[in-house]
Each structure stands twice: as structure tokens, then as C-alpha cells.
């Protein structure tokens, strides 16, 4: 890879072209493009789909890789099953974002679930996924799924208090439109929409790159969620630094022990039968995801304390 | 990152320049270079040291990133403490490769260790590390450390049978000179040099990219090591796909339960005092490292079976 490094170093415009993302300055992960399959511009963002040489099809929004067929299993399975396996028989679930349908595919594995709302702001993402990512968009085919195209904060403001057992926030990075999705008012509307002892799983960036952003999210959630606040992470090669984190919170009510799932997926009737195999998630990976390296524990320890929290007191 | 992807796509020589590493075709991870600090060519490889803009100083061998100051803690701490915390009071340790000294720095935390041999083939790596990576090369300052410059297979052939409690193989990827380090004769010389119930920790590539290579290493080790054979992994952002694996094996003798360390680092007298803090490893991360995603379990399940193995029967 030395060639690349030197090339970037010597190129005058390398800063501008290569290393310009404020979320991960100074590095870039490139996938070889075999074929551009789609390029479009929605009301909200630029959408690109390409066939990569080794990661399958790839979805790119505003220049940022959102998912690849090779490793989407890690993100989708973890963000869905970390919360849903942590509470007994979840019935009503809200997915915020997740227009590709992958999270729906995983939520649908849970036989106890009766109603799934999804609020995605960009209809074009749904349409593009249905065309190019049938293995993810299959999630929309479940009759329990109700698609709402619109702004999530708006949707949550009008949601009945205590309606949901679980809310899963599968948003893009908090730059531009998704900025408000890491702010207190947003988390407050989620807490309001959750039943007592209900759970939130929120995409929470990289422990290697975004410690301060994670601190901010945790401290906001500590104020908002009176149950427990926990941080977990998973390996996702196509995300910057190769990991993605999840913030898991519960509202006041029946305590939730996120690290020891009460609703083990291996025991769920029909969670795996006649469906594609789980590729990344199992009960062992669930518990392991809450193990945090000392460098992260030290950063967040000041903020987090809870009877059932896996974060240091 | 879309710009980069398209740029590579449009460049005629992109294949040649960017995506040419047989270990991870079709992708490249680039770090922005602030300043080239050193470029040299040893008898064995090209050595490059540069100051990156966000990962600190970086060591590159034959164009492949070996370590960065930002994330070396994950690799060095895991490859050293996974084996040494899995056996009671290790005394004699051999490090193969590891010329930067980082593994020695971590092995030295163990007060029970009396003798540390390190066999590194390339003296220039040691010299470069002492000059540019003092935080790693500090490992050479421990009086228990004995540096041997030479070929590891040769060194092991002359090692007394059963001399070592633990052997740690911190090698580069098995292309070119390091090829023989994944072959049966090499593992046999290691098994011979280990005491009964002694342990090997061998760098074992990426579960996302090298499943077949991992299968091969596991199957060779199953034949060679009559105790247990286990696979663990850790997050290392600057390695391809953001993870690195470790093959943990024990020889016939007192059984070793790698997943439940008997020699917890938190209880080790002086393991942390007057030393830099552990950044990535703790007992919780140790056990969590053995949790494997289903896609990997399915691949390796045919090969692995052992009373104390964490791999599926």
C-alpha cells in the first residue's frame, strides 16, 4: 500500500479529494469499482450503487459507504437483535432510517413482533434498495411492516406515548440532515414513545475515532433514559476504523440487562427456519459486544453509572 | 469517499497501483502522510516510517502497514496477554518476529516471566523501531529480554525440547519470506519447543478476508497441537478489514482454558504500576475475543474439536 500513501502525499490536491470527510480526517478506505450500477440525486442526498470487486454491491450516500453485501450482516443483525433479544417478546417496534430494509429483515425474525413502523426520510433510498439490494429490501415484504416516508422527529412527536417496546435508530452520520438525531430533543421524543422498560438501540459511531461524540451521546442519554445506558460495538470492515458502535438505553420500568439477553435468538421459534442464516449475530457475540477496551472505559466512565449498566460506574 | 472510488475507477493503472495486494484484493486503506521520516531497504524488505495526520507514526514494511501509534495497543496487548494470561505464572517466553519491541513491552508486564527470547530476522527493523518508536522499542530495555537476530525456524530447531511456557509469533503476512511460518514443519518445531501444556499465540489474519487461510492454519495446528486449538480476534483499524485474528494452541499436558484466563492481568503485581496504562486489553476483552460470528464458525467447525476448545465441535 506504500505506493498509494506516497501518491497521496505527492498529490497537491490530495487533501481536497481524499481526506475531506470531517468524521474521519486523514484516512480513506477505497473499494475497487467494477461497475457503477446507479447514480441519482434525491431531495436529500446523492445516491450511488456500484458493484465492487470483492465486497459485492455497495450503497453510497453523499459519498459515504452505507453498506456492502459482504459485511452488511454485521451491522443489520447487531442493531436489530441487541435490543430485541434483550427484552421478553417485543411486540411493537419502530425503525428510524433504515430505508434499505436490512434492519426490517432482521426485526422480522422475531415471532413475537406484531407491528413494525419504519420512518425513512428518503423514499429514493427505499426504491433503490428494492431494485439493487433485494436481500435487504426483502424486509419490506413482511406484512407487519408499515412504511412511513417523512421526518423521524415529526413522526415521533405524533407517536402515542409508550407505544413501542423498542426503537432502533439506523441513521447516517450526524453531519448535515442527521445532525439533530444526536441531540437531546430527539432522544426525549424516543423515550416518550417507549413503554416503561422499553429499549433504544442507536447507531453510535466508532470507539476509535469518535470518543467525544460517543461521550456526548451517552451523557445526553443518561439524562433522558432512567433505566440503563450501555455501549456495544461490532466489526464492520467497510465502516471507518472497521467498527461501529451501538448505544443501548432503557426507560424507567422493568430493568433490562442488555449484556445477558433474556430472549435468546437460538430459542426463537422460526427465527432462523426458512430464512437466510444468521451470519454475524449469536448470543455469544451479543454479550461479547459489550466488552470495552480500557481506553474507551476511561473516556466514558465519568458519565455512566447504572444498576444494570455495562459501562463503568 | 465517492470521489476516491470514482477516481480509482477511472484511472487506467488503478489496478496496478492500488489494488495489487494478494492478501486483500479490491480494497485499500490509505492514511494521510504528513511527513516521510525514514525510507530504507534491508536485506529482507523495504522499510518506511511516516508521520500520519491522525494515526501518529506508522511503520510500513514492503508497502504494508505494520503498526500505527494510534492502534498498536490492540495488537500488541492482545497477542501477548491472550496466551500469557491463560497459563499460571509463565516463566520462559519466545517471541518470533516482533522486531519493533511492542510485544516485548507487553510480555514484560508479567512478573512471573524470568526469560524472554526474541528471534527477529531483520535487525534493521529493531534499529528503526529504537529510533522512531521508543514507546514500542522500550520493550528491549527489559533485562530479561535476549535478542537473537536470525531465522526463526533455524532458532527453533536448536531450541531445547520443552524449553518454553509460551511462544508468540508476531510475523508479517505469509507472502514471501514469512510463507513458511504458516506451514506444518514450523508449527512442529514450536510444539517441540513448548513444555507440556505450553501455549502458542500466532497472528492469524482476518476472519472477513482470509477464512480459507485460517482454516488451513487451524487444520495444521489440530494435527500438531494435542491440547486445544482456538481462534480469537481483535479490532485493529489499520489492518485490512479492521480486524486481526489470533490462533491459540496448547500442547498435550495440563489443559488450557483460553477463554477463561487463570492468570488475570488485573491481579498481577506490578503489571500496570509504573508502566503505561493498558489501552485495549482487559480480562473482559480477553474472553470476548473468542466469540465468533456464525459465518466463521460454520467455516471452521468441520476442523476443530477439543475438550477446552472455544471452536465448535
Structure description:
2 copies of one chain form a homodimer. Helices cover 29% and strands 26% of the residues of chain A. With 313 residues, chain A is α/β, with parallel strands linked by helices. In chain A, the strands form 2 sheets. A 7-stranded mixed beta sheet of chain A has the order 8-7-6-9-10-12-11, with helices on both faces. Chain A is globular, with a radius of gyration of 19 Å. The N terminus of chain A is likely disordered. Strand 1 of chain A pairs antiparallel with strand 1 of chain B, so a sheet runs across the interface. Chains A, B: Keywords: Polyamine biosynthesis, Transferase. Chains A, B: This is Spermine synthase isoform X2. Chains A, B: Belongs to the spermidine/spermine synthase family. Chains A, B: Pfam families: Spermine_synt_N, Spermine_synth.
Amino acid at each position: 500500500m506504500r505506493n498509494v500513501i506516497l501518491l497521496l502525499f505527492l498529490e497537491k490536491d490530495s487533501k481536497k479529494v481524499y481526506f475531506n470527510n470531517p468524521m474521519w480526517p486523514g484516512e480513506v478506505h477505497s473499494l475497487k469499482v467494477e461497475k457503477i450500477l446507479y447514480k441519482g440525486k434525491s431531495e436529500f442526498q446523492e445516491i450511488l450503487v456500484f458493484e465492487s470487486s470483492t465486497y459485492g454491491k455497495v450503497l453510497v450516500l453523499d459519498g459515504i459507504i452505507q453498506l456492502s453485501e459482504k459485511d452488511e450482516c454485521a451491522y443489520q443483525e447487531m442493531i436489530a437483535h441487541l435490543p430485541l433479544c434483550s427484552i421478553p417478546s417485543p411486540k411493537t417496534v419502530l425503525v428510524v432510517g433504515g430505508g434499505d430494509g436490512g434492519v426490517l429483515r432482521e426485526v422480522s425474525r422475531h415471532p413475537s413482533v406484531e407491528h413494525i413502523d419504519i420512518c425513512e426520510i428518503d423514499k429514493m433510498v427505499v426504491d433503490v434498495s428494492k431494485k439493487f439490494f433485494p436481500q435487504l429490501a426483502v424486509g419490506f415484504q413482511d406484512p407487519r411492516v408499515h412504511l412511513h416516508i417523512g421526518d423521524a422527529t415529526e413522526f415521533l412527536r405524533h407517536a402515542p406515548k409508550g407505544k413501542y417496546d423498542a426503537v432502533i435508530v439506523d441513521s447516517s452520520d450526524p453531519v448535515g440532515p442527521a445532525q439533530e438525531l444526536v441531540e437531546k430533543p430527539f432522544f426525549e421524543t424516543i423515550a416518550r414513545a417507549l413503554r416503561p422498560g422499553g429499549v433504544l438501540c442507536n447507531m453510535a459511531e466508532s470507539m476509535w475515532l469518535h470518543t467525544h461524540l460517543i461521550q456526548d451521546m451517552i451523557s445526553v442519554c443518561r439524562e433522558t433514559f432512567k433505566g440503563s445506558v450501555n455501549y456495544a460495538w461490532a466489526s464492520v470492515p467497510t465502516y471507518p476504523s472497521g467498527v461501529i458502535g451501538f448505544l443501548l438505553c432503557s426507560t424507567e420500568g422493568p430493568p433490562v440487562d442488555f449484556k445477558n439477553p433474556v430472549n435468546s435468538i437460538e430459542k426463537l421459534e422460526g427465527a432462523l427456519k426458512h430464512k437466510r442464516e444468521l451470519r454475524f449475530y449469536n448470543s455469544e457475540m451479543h454479550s461479547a459486544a459489550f466488552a470495552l477496551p480500557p481506553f474507551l472505559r476511561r473516556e466514558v466512565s465519568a458519565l455512566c453509572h447504572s444498576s444494570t449498566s455495562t459501562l463503568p460506574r
